Amino acid sequence: MFNLYTCKKTDSIRTVLSKIDKNKEGFLVVCNNGIVDSIVTDGDIRRGLLSGFSLDDCVIKFSNSKFDYLTIASKFEHACELFALSKNKFLPILDSKNLLVNIITRQQFNDFMLNDNDFNINENFVKLNSPKTIETISNRPWGFYISTFLSPHCQAKILTIFPASETSLQYHKNREEHWVVVKGNGAVIKDNKMHEVKTGDYIYIQKEEKHRLINNSNSNFIISEIQIGSYFGEDDIVRMEDKYGRI
Questions:
Q1: CA distances from 160 to 77, 82, 214, 222 (A)
Q2: Can you point out the beta strands (E) in 95-174?
Q3: CATH class of this structure's domain 3-127
Q4: What are 46-52's contacts with CB under 8 Å, separation 24+?
Q5: What per-residue confidence (pLDDT) applies to 195?
Q6: Which residues contact 2 (CB under 8 A, 6 or more apart)?
Q7: What is the DSSP secondary structure assignment for residue 130, as one 8-state letter?
Q8: pLDDT tens, residue by residue, 215-227
Q9: Of 181, 220, 221, whose CA–CA distance to 199 is shortest?
Q10: pLDDT tens figures, 166-181
């Protein structure tokens, strides 16, 4: 279960680097017959090589024997406390004999809890390798958006509409949208009625309600958007009008 996330004390740096490259998490837990001895990260390896170690040296020479961990009795509050420390990108989970029983990364912890799950130390976190928290900017003719969270029941986005730009007049079949103006002034069209909006205003868009965002100012118009529904793909956009020719 943990083969890609563990190594032996006698493994070489070369072997450890190969495993870290495969697991793509940047760390390994160093074990001796299942008992956790220390941890090693790609940063530890870089520092070791810079200080004169070779690729054939054993990992135990520079692995970290002082590390934070969870136990099978740990509660949600303890996990939050440890992940609040910037140094902890992951935490081994140990039993009373220091045997490794689980591993959880900060990303897995965030995704698991944000998907409305009850914290369970026995969850197979290793399988949770598809992040739902997203931080990639998607550009559009009117500006750009970044999707910050996606789950089966909602999606969160930040939209930035550039000056003299506007979204298409559109509606959605599978989701409603809740907007809060984060910065700037602009206008919203809801079912052919225009409403002037400013920082702090809230706008509710029902399913199948025609809507458009317009930036009629000289600075960026920024919206925080929460989508609630059954499907959040971009192909749920039905465009009625679009100044950029996307119909």
A1: 35, 34, 11, 4
A2: 100-105, 137-140, 143-150, 154-161, 165-166, 169-172
A3: alpha beta
A4: 48/13, 49/13
A5: 96
A6: 29, 100, 103, 126
A7: S
A8: 999 999 999 999 9
A9: 181
A10: 999 999 999 999 999 9
- Domain positions in the chain are 3-127, 137-241
Residues in the chain: 247
| Alpha-carbon span 185 to 196, nearest angstrom | 8
Helix (H, G, I), strand (E, B) or coil at 232: coil
| Identity at 46, one-letter amino acid code | R
First to last CA, the chain: 49
Question: Structure tokens of 41?
Answer: 């990260």
CA 4, 114, 87: angle at the middle one, nearest 5? 55
42-50 and 13-23 are packed helices; what angle lies between their axes, rounded to 10 degrees?
A: 150
* pTM score above 0.85: no
Pure H helices in the chain:
13-23, 42-50, 76-83, 106-114
At 123-145, the pLDDT tens digits run 888 776 555 556 678 999 999 99
Please give the CATH architecture assigned to the domain spanning 137-241. Answer: Sandwich (2.60)
φ, ψ for residue 101, nearest 5 deg? -115, -15
Q: Which long-range CB contacts under 8 A does 99-104 form with residues at least 24 apart?
A: 99/34, 99/35, 99/36, 100/2, 100/6, 100/29, 100/31, 100/34, 100/35, 100/36, 101/72, 102/70, 102/126, 103/2, 103/5, 103/29, 104/70, 104/79
pLDDT of residue 114: 79
**What gap in Å lies between CA 95 and CA 70, rounded to an integer?**
9
